[in-house]
Structure formats: structure tokens, C-alpha cells
Amino acid sequence: MEPFAIKDSTMAFIGLGLIGGSLARGIKRARPDIRIMAYMRTRAKLEQAQKDGIVDVILEGIGEELRECDLIFLCTPVEYNARYLSAIRPFLKPGALITDVGSTKTDIHEEIRRQGLEHCFVGGHPMTGSEKTGYENSTDHLLENAYYIVTPPEGQSGESAQYTENVRRILAVAQAVDAIPLVLDYREHDRVTAAVSHLPHLVASSLVNLVKDNDSAAGTMRRIAAGGFKDITRIASSSPEMWEQICMTNAAPIGDMLEQYIYSLQEILAQIRGHKGRDIYRLFDQSRSYRNSISDRAKGPIEPSYEFSVDVADEVGSISTIAVILAAKGISIKNIGINNNRERGEGALKIAFYNETSMKEAWERLEKYKFDLVRL
Ligand SMILES: NC(=O)c1ccc[n+]([C@@H]2O[C@H](COP(=O)([O-])OP(=O)(O)OC[C@H]3O[C@@H](n4cnc5c(N)ncnc54)[C@H](O)[C@@H]3O)[C@@H](O)[C@H]2O)c1
Ligand SMILES: O=C(O)C(=O)C[C@]1(C(=O)O)C=C[C@@H](O)C=C1
């Protein structure tokens, strides 16, 4: 995609939490000259953002100051984003553009159509995030190398100059924060995210609740739950308010996926009870191939990560031993840390390198010292 430069000079954020905060930080990092206004309910956090040099103007609410804005970002939970449209509308200056970062898109696009705002809206959704919330968890690099889905409104001619220019304004933002822009139809967006984001959150939370309901009074399940359970359930710690709204605004696609998933679980149940080992083997075999074809690089496909993990018994001594072994060969370590999947300090060390060559050299070296290595 050709590069686009941000031409908008004043921007407003309604909601400055994990995603709004990260986007604002990323924009300020790329373009400190851009003036950022922000509104959220917790005044103290807005003051912090101003101290951090991210917010130039604290907004007390939706009002006159918005008339100065070229671009307005809606970064609250999805149902609130759609509701903010009516409040913002009277304060839009000619040429101003509204965008959002919501995890579902059809709902807000339908509200845009109801209000006849297609000429001044382009949807957005950065495919990155965390189970954590709030400005305090935002970073200037959260969106780096993540897909930034851009959903143009319907009913605008793809040829029209204004349509093209509006889409480009959001592509420029995505590029400025080093994300990877991807233009998608908003209904397609909701179908796809139902499968790869929304259903997984329902699965994680229902699995955690299942374990909670089956655990003993002594809490043995909770105590011994290790990597497998923790890997698949991290997202069960996400915001209930945000996820209720995501599910309620994408009920039909999520329902379709959930129905198929329940069907597949019923098949698995029959195979387990019928001792159909070959079917169970096929389940794991097929999933392994497809899962292995999906990149595990947390930050998307641009920057490859060169890392592996080392099984160690005592992480404190092991870090220095490994560091010495690698340093002796002149191999630089980019990052080294404990994989949080094991209990009581015993576990895996994750080591990241700057390039493939040093990763391979380190692998060979540590293998010689009989370390147990695991590819990530
Ligand atoms: N968390 C993720 O992983 C993720 C990823 C991509 C997109 N999103 C989307 O981003 C949006 C924000 O999510 P987040 O993770 O930043 O959540 P968050 O809880 O960290 O931030 C939400 C922000 O909105 C503010 N807010 C909430 N209700 C408000 C209201 N009624 N009026 C004004 N401000 C209000 C909060 O004070 C906070 O500043 C959501 O629409 C979500 O679907 C989230
Ligand atoms: O990594 C996480 O914690 C996320 O849940 C991020 C995640 C997802 O991948 O499902 C969650 C919601 C979004 O809209 C986009 C990204």
C-alpha cells in the first residue's frame, strides 16, 4: 500500500483507555505537532495524560471545543461509541471525520446510516489489545505491526473523491502508528472477528467458570492449573462491560459460530465416549497443522521474532549461566525472562534474539550444554 501522510492537525479522543490511550500515544510519538483533545470520565487519568504530554486539551464533555477538531476518535465500549454520534453531531465542523476503534462494526455503521453521516465516518478496529484496561496500561507501541482494519461506510461510491480521501485519512493514522492497514467490508469484519476474537472470549470465560464450578473447596484445580489452562484463558480476565457490549452488537455472527462450535463439541463428546481414538487423533492432527500455520508473533507479520524457550529448574542461576554461555560466543540477547506458565519458580526461560543467525547459534550452543529447548 502506498504511504499516506496525516494532514489532520487537531484530533479528539472520546474515551482514552487502553486502545484510545495507545493510539493517542502512537500518534504523538509519530507527530508531536498534532494537537490532541480528550474526554473520559475519570478526570485524574486525563490530567495524567496531559502531564505525559499526550493530551493537550482536556475536554469536560462533548461541546463547542469539538468544532476545532479534524478527526474524532470514539474509543469507549462499542454501544457507547454509537450513542456518542448524536451528541457529537451538532459540533462537527465541515470536513471533520469521525472514526472509532470498536471491536464490532455493523452496529455503528447502521447508526451512521440512520443518522445520514456516511460522508463523515470511516470505521476502524486495531486487531491488538490485552485483557487489561485503562489509560494506565496504554503504550505508544501497542498498535505496531498489528492489523488495523478500516471499514468504509456503505452507500458511498468507491470512486468518489471524498470517500477515497476519508479512507486515506484513517489509513494515514494506521500507518503513522506503524500498524498494517487492511480495508474490509464491515459485515465481513463482524463475521471474521466472531470466529477469531469473540467466540474465543466466550470459550475462555465459560471454561474458567466450568473449572470454578467443579473445583473442590480446597481449590486444587485452581492451584495446579498450569500452562495449558493459562494459555487458553488469559482473555477471561478481560472487561465484562466491554465484552457484554461486543456480544450484544454482534449476536447473529457469534450465534452462528457458537452453534457450529457446540456441534463440534458434541461430536467430540461422542468420539470420547465411543473411544474413537482415530477421530480424536485426527482432531489434534488437523488443529496442529492449521495452528502451526498461524504466526505466534504477538505484533503481527512485519517484524519476525527470533525466540525460543529453555526448560530450567532454577531460573535465577539459569539466567546468568545461559547469559554467560551465549556471551562467550558473542551472541547478543535481546530479551530474557521467565515464561509465566509454571508455578513455584520452576519453569521455562524465554530468550529473544535480534536475528535468525544469533537464534540458531544460541540454539546449537545451548543444545551442546544439554539444555531442554522448545521452539515458540
Ligand atoms: N481491549 C482490547 O483488546 C481492544 C482491542 C481493539 C479494540 N477494542 C475496542 O476499543 C474500545 C475501547 O476499549 P479499551 O480496551 O480501550 O477499553 P478501556 O476500558 O481501557 O477504555 C475505555 C475508555 O472509555 C471510557 N469510557 C467508558 N465509558 C464511557 C462513557 N460512557 N463515556 C465516556 N467515556 C467512557 C473509559 O473511561 C476509558 O477511558 C472498545 O470499543 C473495544 O471494543 C478493544
Ligand atoms: O489480546 C487480547 O487480550 C485480546 O483479546 C485482543 C483482541 C482479540 O484478539 O480478541 C480483543 C478484542 C479486539 O477487538 C481485538 C483484539
UniProtKB/TrEMBL annotation:
Keywords assigned: Amino-acid biosynthesis, Aromatic amino acid biosynthesis, NAD, Oxidoreductase, Tyrosine biosynthesis
E.C. no: 1.3.1.12
Stretches assigned to the ACT domain: 307-376
Reaction(s) this enzyme catalyzes, per UniProt: prephenate + NAD(+) = 3-(4-hydroxyphenyl)pyruvate + CO2 + NADH
Domain of life the protein comes from: Bacteria
PROSITE patterns, A to Z: ACT, PDH_ADH
Metabolic or biological pathway: Amino-acid biosynthesis; L-tyrosine biosynthesis; (4-hydroxyphenyl)pyruvate from prephenate (NAD(+) route): step 1/1
Family: Belongs to the prephenate/arogenate dehydrogenase family.
Protein name per its UniProtKB record: Prephenate dehydrogenase
Species assigned in the record: Enterocloster alcoholdehydrogenati
Domain named Prephenate/arogenate dehydrogenase: residues: 9-302
Amino-acid biosynthesis is among the record's keywords: yes
